[in-house]
What we know:
By secondary structure, chain A is α/β, with parallel strands linked by helices. Chain A is built from 17 helices and eleven strands. In chain A, a hairpin with a 2-residue loop joins strand 10 (408-411) and strand 11 (414-417). The interface between A and B is large, with 56 and 57 residues.
Amino acid sequence: MNPSLSTNVQEHLSARPQPSATSIAAAGLSRMIEPGDVIGKALVEVSGMVDAYAFITHSTQPISGSLLQSMSELLEAWGHRKGIKLLREATERWRTRTNHEAVLQSLRYMEQLGGGLLTPDEPLWPQQLSDLEFNAPFCLWWRGSKPPLLWPSAERMVSLVGSRDATSYGNSVAVELGSGLAQADVTVVSGGAYGIDAMAHRGALTAEDPEAATFPTIAVMAGGLDRYYPAGNTDLMDEIRTCGVLISETPPGTAPTRWRFLQRNRLIAALTAATVVIEARWRSGALSTAHHALLLGRGLGAVPGPVTSASSQGCLKLLKDGAELIRDAQDIRLLMNDSDGYAPQETDQSFMKSEPRAHDQLSVNDLMLMDALPIRGWSTVDHLSEVAGLNIGGVLSGLARLQIQGLAVTREGSWQKAK
Amino acid sequence: MNPSLSTNVQEHLSARPQPSATSIAAAGLSRMIEPGDVIGKALVEVSGMVDAYAFITHSTQPISGSLLQSMSELLEAWGHRKGIKLLREATERWRTRTNHEAVLQSLRYMEQLGGGLLTPDEPLWPQQLSDLEFNAPFCLWWRGSKPPLLWPSAERMVSLVGSRDATSYGNSVAVELGSGLAQADVTVVSGGAYGIDAMAHRGALTAEDPEAATFPTIAVMAGGLDRYYPAGNTDLMDEIRTCGVLISETPPGTAPTRWRFLQRNRLIAALTAATVVIEARWRSGALSTAHHALLLGRGLGAVPGPVTSASSQGCLKLLKDGAELIRDAQDIRLLMNDSDGYAPQETDQSFMKSEPRAHDQLSVNDLMLMDALPIRGWSTVDHLSEVAGLNIGGVLSGLARLQIQGLAVTREGSWQKAK
Lengths: 419, 419
């Protein structure tokens, strides 16, 4: 770790105030309410976080008729018709997880781990998450060595997602794109899985710069940030924590379940200006992130692959359905409307640079004359006239032009192509 | 060669009449006028083929003012403003190639080779070529063992084109697509080059069936049909000649020049309902065929490949520019509007078939419960309630559903995931 950076962090930590009532309520609610629980979101919207937490933790207090009424109306406005019975059941469900001491402990623990909790009332809260409307999270747990002041703006973030069981092709494209974006000061957002997620982070971390204005990469996790899942990515997660940040909706100690993985995907899509699927099978969790990006009106791109590769069928399907085809980091920046005046041109494709060919500039007649010129033997003007189908004047003037361009040579009145 | 087929061909040949004045004129004009020469096309349109040929071969006859006037007006209507001087020069140019004996000989020679000349006034003429307007050919030389009665309709033909220096990926996709189309009675049209052209033909020939209603494949050549270019494809060309047909605008003895290759591409695009580029570098002749297909309003598809492969950059560019993404022969048939009620579905993709998963049918609550069930140890209903965040009633009813579906098992009041 950079020594001056860790000093900064120490100052930041020691200057940190005791958790506010809002933070405690948010921590408690994130323990009791599953990510994406719209009924819980309705309660928070109607009561505010502090009152919502107080209501749930007063386990004997029945839910009032007026609260039920307000929640019902809000849920209906969101298109979620829920009977009163479901709302009562939801309260019982949340109450099974009540544990105020554990909530306070989770806040202290997160601070010890070099992290904290961010709530929507704080200036650093990523405002773009409100596009999720009734699916927006009400807090984010974070863990990182840099103070969260370095959080980038939405239009400087892109999600790179894909399969865990990626091919070497997918992995190498992920590294390439992650690195290309970070070099252009675009923050990469992904999950914490093996394969594409890991390689996208690794690519972004190659552009690591302690003086950088923002994080090179952000990992959005499905479970608590106290332990890493999968454990095999521990070194990578430590590196992301040092140079970037880890975030999660769920408090420390939470297991990453299938449900939480699916809900996590909506955060990845909502945080960023665009989502790019690098490699995905016909059925892949990455496609759920793509779906969220579409619903949110974010950019959606996909990297093509061989039609013979099962590992690319999800991406090819997205492309058939209208996702933008992504070849390199520049294509992604165009998708994000972050072009810096960049317009794709033949010569910008470094791996396929080709010199303009002399022949490209020839007129039709001169091209026919070039075709008629022998490579080895020598040809007379009369013969060239017949082979090229040009009159004598056309042959003579054409030969003069080709000679000036170094494409034709003459000897004793006969002609051939220049070597 | 199929014996009954060669008998048919013998009958066809012996029944063939002497060449008509139109055939002789067309043969002569195809010798003198380069493919795609709009001035030549204007002369043919204004005078008719027989008179146009007679005018050019009367080498001393000057071009009349009224003929010049008519040609000028026609060229102007086509958007080609050409000065009178250019028209006079064109006449001189054509006349350099006059040789009536060679013209008659080329017709006899082609007949000996098992072929002939087709002109637009014949019922078998492929009418779709008239979409080329002032670039339409005025004759087609052909060579094949089946009588040209088997010429398919335009909407049953598709062009498969691509690079000569194809990768093993491109080659294998070309074989796959060629074979898939021929099996669906769609005729493949391509050039005669190594790489994608050859592999597309080879794929189509695997579906060879002497009783088939149409040719499996058609090769459109840039030079005369008396010799094959490249010579390394001689065996393939012989096989196409036996089962399909070879065609060219140019008479026997004509060398395949760069110009003629470029012009040949417009025929490939115009003959078919759609053009599919299978593998092409950033600069590839196949892209000129794609361009013609677009100009003609034909379907245009491209097969994606790895973004890291230089051999796929031309295809990826076409896809960026809106070409339809092609994964298999079914995608091509959809592009041709030849779907036979086919609609792509997950399960139609044989190489990525996946069984529906039991989990897919679960409600959100049951999914959370599944996530909470241990794989090894056993969990009580109370514990499941806390871990899953569900009330006791929800856990009990959920466990009952999971048990019925064989997803959960119970022992002494505790539960785990079914193995």
